[in-house]
Amino acid sequence: MASSFFTKIPSLSVIFSIYTSLSAFTILFRTILHEILPAKIRDFIVSKFTDCFSSYFSSSFTFVIEEHCDYVINQTFRAAQVYLPTLLAGISTGSLLVSSSDLKNPTAKPNFGIPVKAKITDEFEGIPLEWTLHSEKDTIPPQNRQRRYNPEFHEWESTIFQHHTTFETLAMEPELKNSLICDLDAFSKRKDFFKTVGRAWKRGYLLHGPPGTGKSSLVAAIANHMNYNIYDLQIQSVKDDAMLRQILTMTENRSILLIEDLDCSGADASCRNEDKVDEERGQNQNKEKKKKKKDPDQVTLAGLLNFVDGLWSSCVEERIIVFTTNHKDKLDPALLRPGRMDVHILMDYCTPTVFKKLAALYLDVEEHVLFEPIEKALLEVNATPAEVTEQLMVSMNPDVTLKVLVEFLQTKKLTKDNDSVDSEIKEAEA
């Protein structure tokens, strides 16, 4: 075995001959590389060899710090945002991001930031580091996204839009649904028309009706139908008109600006809670609420109208503005005129047609012996689609679920009758 091994080892002369041949080839290759090939081709070949072998011998490592982690703000990203502006001396490009967020003070000191794709050199405990900022547009495929304004950081926070409601699954009166779809499709095809008549390419929708009637689901269906992003703005969190201007100028084309509970703007969050209590007790009418003094620093009606009509709306294209409210009668008439709110959509209580759509969607049934008493009850009592949906999710068994819904509507009707009797007694005593 040992003798066989030693007999296979090449002689010294053979090894020397191989070394001489390799050396000659190397010298010839270098001569061709430096004297025959142009410099650009030479650099290209060298770079390819470097890239090929560097992956096996490179000691570098890349850390990816995303702005969002599991749809919430990544605090490591925030820390990097604060730290990197202190290293502007090490920026590799000749550009610098300059901004100002103080609209009330033009002489305020500007803020400096890092442009996209700019590289910054750094060092930590003798280890060289290189920072690079990448835009999500370069790394994330196009998709619907929902953005909510964060007043703490003065920016829109982005999350993947995961509301699956479409016009196909939306429980809504067919005539109203078809009319809305036609209006949206016509709007999306009329860019040249808006340009010709000198108007901003935008459309305004007002969704009004009791809580739980599907206003948010309708907005989701519009977004999915148009393939638009949604900018969800809680106007109560906006400090003043100047901040509103800053917020709106940060939005993009082909998007929906959603301002919910417009009737509660300037009031505290208890406005919505009061509506729910009123709805449960059936005492919406003849009830007066305390009026509160408006903070002078809050967004004003004039400020809101200026941005719906003014320069902001003229600087964007294919924009839909959606206002929602539980009380249309509380809104200033100036907000309701065409050109601001072009289409008013009443999101009302559940009807027999809407109920059948919900039953088909949640129970996969189109006919049942209990449909008739349910439809009759829905004409006698006010039940929101949200309330009906809650009962339809009790069980996957249609017999059990529809029976529960019948009992729910009967209880609701009994409560309504008792309230009517009590009201008549109080009026008689008065």
From TrEMBL:
Originating species: Capsella rubella
BP GO annotations: response to stress
Family to which this protein belongs: Belongs to the AAA ATPase family. BCS1 subfamily.
Region Disordered, annotated ranges: 273-295
Keywords, comma-separated and alphabetical: ATP-binding, Hydrolase, Magnesium, Membrane, Nucleotide-binding, Transmembrane, Transmembrane helix
Pfam family, one: AAA_assoc
Catalytic activity: ATP + H2O = ADP + phosphate + H(+)
Protein name (Swiss-Prot/TrEMBL): AAA+ ATPase domain-containing protein
PANTHER family named in the record: BCS1 AAA-TYPE ATPASE
TM region positions: 12-33
Sequence ranges of Basic and acidic residues compositional bias: 273-282
CDD domains in the cross-refs: RecA-like_BCS1 (cd19510)
Cofactor: Mg(2+)
GO molecular function: ATP binding; ATP hydrolysis activity
Coiled-coil blocks: none
Ranges for domain AAA+ ATPase: 201-351
